[in-house]
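Example record

One chain of 325 residues, shown exactly as stored in the release files.
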Amino acid sequence: MNTFFCSDYAKQTGEDVVGSATNYETYILVECPPPWTTEAFNSKWVPNNLKMLVEEVKRAKLPIRFLLIANDQSHKVAKTTLLIYQKSKGLIQGYRKHEFKLANIENVAAVIQKFLWGTIPEHEKETTITRDILVCTHGSHDKCCARYGNPFYFHAENTISHLGLEDVRIWKSSHFGGHRFAPTIIDLPEGRYYGLVEQDSFKSILTHTGDIQYLNKVYRGWGILPVPLQILEKELILHYGWDWFNYKVAGKILEQSLDNNTVLAELTFENTRGSLYTCQAKLVKDETKTIEIKSSCNAKQASVVTKYSVASLWLESKKVVSLSA
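Predicted structure tokens for this chain:
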């Protein structure tokens, strides 16, 4: 019997969680009651037209992430929720949400197709919900997500309720990577990823208050940024504190060495007073943090996970147009 739990192992090795968020332009979240099979979109409630669409998008290698979501009401409700989160251009704080309530899951594929063709379908719904938290509970994909994701989801519902956050919804989600950091969550519309989360750090994430150093243990990175920039962004969070979460940001990789050991990255950001800054940083492969690890409970062999550190950093203020004479 295999008693290896990848999440326990990642904790024991002290693997740095930052730089493990995945980078997508669009998240498409489809409400579908569990149980889910290992490959979520082969599950019994997923209709063929939706399966085929997901396969088509995969083959075209589009930067779109499809996930199944569910909550405690999903078995009982008469309508199917479809959420599409799409990244905007330029300086941003995250993704733009489109929410649809559909008669059933059979209607989902047609609405997604319309959306991807650039037409906003007529079923879009206004809602007071401003935040969706996804918790991976996909135990058939990796047992750590069942072992740690399910209890976390249960307690997180109570945490949200005790804090009186009526505009926050929490969902069980199919696999979105990083199960060795279970329990792992995505916070939308920001698109930030967290792992090895417990209720204290979750409260801080929800309220953007408390000890910012929590993020050293739980912050996996911001999904709008490529991996090396996620490491740079975490440094800026620790410098600017929770206020950083209100900043608008854009980032790009300027240069990358052929062996990927050195990266020159740039983040441009606008603070809450409208001041604009550009930060450039040289990131280098960190031999002390780069490890060989089994990245999932079912992994047959270990793989090398490259980690970066910020070697040098330049911050430059850009000209800001003042409205006062």
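Notes: The chain is about 25% helix and 30% strand.
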